[in-house]
Structures are given as structure tokens and as C-alpha cells.
Amino acid sequence: MVKGALLVAGTTSDAGKSVVTAGICRWLARQGVRVAPFKAQNMSLNSYVTADGAEIGRAQAAQARAAGLEPVADMNPVLLKPGSDRRSQVVLMGRPVADVDAMEYGALKDLLRTTSLEALKRLREQYDVVVCEGAGSPAEINLRRSDIANMGLARAANLPVLVVGDIDRGGVFAAFYGTVGLLDAADQALVSGFVVNKFRGAKELLRPGLDMIGRLTGREVYGVLPWLEGPWLDVEDSLALDGRQVAARPPYGRQTLRVAVVRLPRISNFTDVDALAAEPGVLVRFVSDPAELDDADLVVLPGSRATVDDLTWLRERGLAAALRERSGPVLGICGGFQMLGREIVDEVESGAGRVEGLGLLPVRITFERHKRLARPEGQAYGERVQAYEIHHGVATVEGGEPFLDGCRQGNVWGTTWHGALENDGFRRAFLADVAARAGRDFAPDPATDFAALREERLDALGDLVEQHLDTAALLHLIQHGPPPGLPLLPPGAQMGEPR
């Protein structure tokens, strides 16, 4: 029986840690191994609500699905949600406990470390294998003393570490060598090998580099994962949105339906539009210029961790005026819904007090200290809708037509519900209505099954692991830990122990 654990680290953010973790979970689950994902500390504005009302990172929820499990708070005990460049909300075991800056965070680190290790211990007692995901890079030497997600976790739990590098960005071999070299001796002893991710081309061209990095570091390259076309669902990092345009599947109807998603500075839960991109013939773009709204059949104003600040940004960019002048369909979700209202009273998130909204919906928003975390159900367009809620702002609806606990007025819809578009019947009916209002000869594909597409995507990640990694060596690493006698690279060997 396979028994053990592994930490998947990365040379950078968005190197592919989440994808590789999900792929390993799916591959192990298909082998009959009871496996669970884990991320000690996640900094992300894409989150999810578990069945018992806990908030965790969206990527960990997807990894739980890859493992065939219902997500729970133990899989992501610490979630940091940045509200600005300096402050983040700390979510501990699924509940917000503080709003801190970097210095205040230091006072919490012992509690966060203890809580994370206890959560990992519980998972290891319940499951055969726990696949842990790191955060950022393990070589963030300025953060090493307070680290609980990378080498701090690996040291505390004696985990072998696999480092993933994104070759599409370039410099992957230097990143591998530098990652190991910047670590102290005890940390280096846990770094067991590498995975090259996002490779396009003939693997033979990589062979000299793979051989050399093996000789230079004394560590195995466990495999090369090819570039996977199409979007990875449930990404957690907004880096993935830079320049993103997604036409996920070939057109089904006679015309393409064009969706523009406003790329807010503190955009949250942008995964709400994954289901739109999965619909044949729907083109989804993330935009930040008013002119980019002109040819959109639907504009989505998504969630935000800083509603008032992002509303100010809309005004400064000219997007607020463009939205007010727009006659075509607009959908606001959570923070976007709040911005579309008449007024926001916020003494909690921004402390700005009373702020004028865009005035496109007859709604007034009051921020409360208690965060609402729920899994609501309802109906719209005669279709059943299951969703989840994560918000401090409470809406008082003063007119319009009811719409998923929000409202609709004219061509503008607003709701606090995340994930509503993942409901196939509702999504088709909504898009058909949008197309009619936009004058598009577009018909949603009645065969599109978003849940099935997500499962296909997770299977594809499992296939990548099974077909392109040395799975026998990976199993040995999970069960037996780091290979003994791994060589030390200077200057890490002389850096001394982190305190």
C-alpha cells in the first residue's frame, strides 16, 4: 500500500504547482490510493465555500475534486486575501480572523504554523497520501524565517520536495539551480528533484539541459510535461489573466457571442466565467480599457476584494462612464453587483463610509463585519441554481425584478452568487436571453456539460502525470522520502540555519 506525502513547490508563481498537484491527485486516485490535497497557506482572491461553510482556496477545491473528495478546511487551513498592496484578510480554518499588514502578520505566524501542521497531521491520519502544494517559490529567502508553506512546512513534516519550473517563460534550468543553491543545507536535503512544465516542441532538444542539471545538482528530473492547450479551470493566481483571451471550444451557433470581463485590480473569483468560456462559440476576454467594451455582447463586472477602491479605479479609467452609457447586457457578480448599485456604505473593508455607486441597479449596499459564507440554492429562468456566497456587503433591493438574491433592471443583472454560471440549464437560458438582447444569432449548445468538462480536464492532468512523469520514481519518493546523500550546492551550504 502506498503511504506518504510530497510537497510540490515551484520556481515562480504560476509555474504550474496547482496543476501538477491536481494531476498527481487524479493519477493516484485512479490507482485506488486514498489521496488528499493540502496547501498550508494560500494567498489568493479565488476562493470557494465548503459544504460546512468554510472558505478555502479555489485551487484546493479543484484538487479535492481531482482526488474524488468533498473539499474541507483542513486542505487549506490558512488563506490570505489581499485587500491592498499592504494588507490582507487572514482566513483561518475557513473563517476570517484578522486584517493585517506584513508586520502584524508576524504576530500571527506561530498560530498559523501550528494550525497548518495540525491540519496536515489530520489529513495524513485519514488518507494514504497527502500531496502538498507550496506557495510562490521556496527560494524567497527574505520570507524564509516566517515560511509555513514551502521549506518551513517541508522541514517540519519531513516532506520530500519536487520543484516545478515553467519552461515557457524561459530560464528554467537557471531557476532550478538557483532555487536549490539559495537554500540552506537542511532545506537542500529535502529538495529531491524537478519537473519541467509547459514544454512546446521536441523533447530531444531538452536532453542536454536535463542531463546537465542532473549532474550539476545531483537531483533527478522526474519528467517533462507538455503544454496543455485550453484553459486550466479554477486557477488561483491573477497572473494567469494577463493578456488572457479564451475561446475554449469551436463555435456552435452561426455567430460568436463576445464577453468582456473587466479586469479589476483586486479581481476575485474570476473563475466565475470559466463556464462561459467552456460554452462553444463564446469568446471571453479580460479587458481594462473602455474601448474594449464597445463590441462586447455581454460585459461581466466580477467580484472584488476591494469594492470601493476598484470602483474608484473604474471611474479613473473611464470604465464607469462606459458602463453607464452602455445599452447592452451587463452582469455584476458579488463586488461587481455592489458597484452597480446606487450607494455603498462601507465602514468595514475600505472605511470610506458612504460612496455613490454606478446607479445601474436599484440597490443599496451596507458592509457588515460578519462575512457571509453560504451555499445557496434558488431558481432563475425556470432553472435550478446552486451557488456559493462570500461577501461582507449586504444588499437592500429597492426595485427591479428578483434575480438570484439580487435583481435585474433592463439589461443589467446583479447577484452575490458565485458559481451560478456552472449550472448548465441556467447558463444556457441566460446566454440565450443575452444573445437575443444583443441581437446575436447565437444558440447555446444543449449538450455542454460543465461538470463533465471539468472532469475531463482533471483526467487530462492525470494523464499528463501518468504519461510524462517517472511514476515509479514518484511513488518511491512519496513512500521513502528524499534520497539520502543529496549533494549541497554553494552558497546555500554556508548560509546557516533560518531562525
List the helices and strands and how they pair.
Layout: E1 4-10, H1 17-30, E2 35-38, E3 41-43, E4 47-49, E5 55-57, H2 58-66, E6 78-82, E7 87-92, E8 95-101, H3 102-126, E9 129-133, H4 151-157, E10 161-166, H5 172-181, H6 185-188, E11 191-199, H7 207-217, E12 220-226, E13 245-246, E14 257-262, E15 267-268, H8 274-277, E16 282-287, E17 298-301, E18 303-304, H9 307-317, H10 319-325, E19 330-333, H11 335-340, E20 343-346, E21 353-356, E22 363-374, E23 377-380, E24 383-386, E25 389-397, E26 401-403, E27 406-409, E28 412-415, H12 424-438, H13 450-468, H14 471-480
Parallel strand pairs: 1-9, 1-10, 2-9, 3-6, 10-11, 11-12, 14-16, 14-17, 17-19, 19-28, 20-22
Antiparallel strand pairs: 4-5, 6-7, 7-8, 13-16, 15-18, 20-21, 22-25, 23-24, 26-27, 27-28
Look up the CATH topology of the largest domain. Answer: Rossmann fold
Compute the number of strand runs: 28
Largest sheet: 8 strands, mixed
Number of domains: 2
Distance between the termini: 37 Å
CATH homology-level superfamily of the largest domain: P-loop containing nucleotide triphosphate hydrolases
Count of alpha and pi helical runs: 14
Strand order of the largest sheet: 13-16-14-17-19-28-27-26
Shape: globular
Helix content: 25-40%
Strand content: 25-35%
Domain CobB/CobQ-like glutamine amidotransferase: 258-425
Keywords: Cobalamin biosynthesis, Glutamine amidotransferase
GO biological process, one term: cobalamin biosynthetic process
Protein name: Cobyric acid synthase
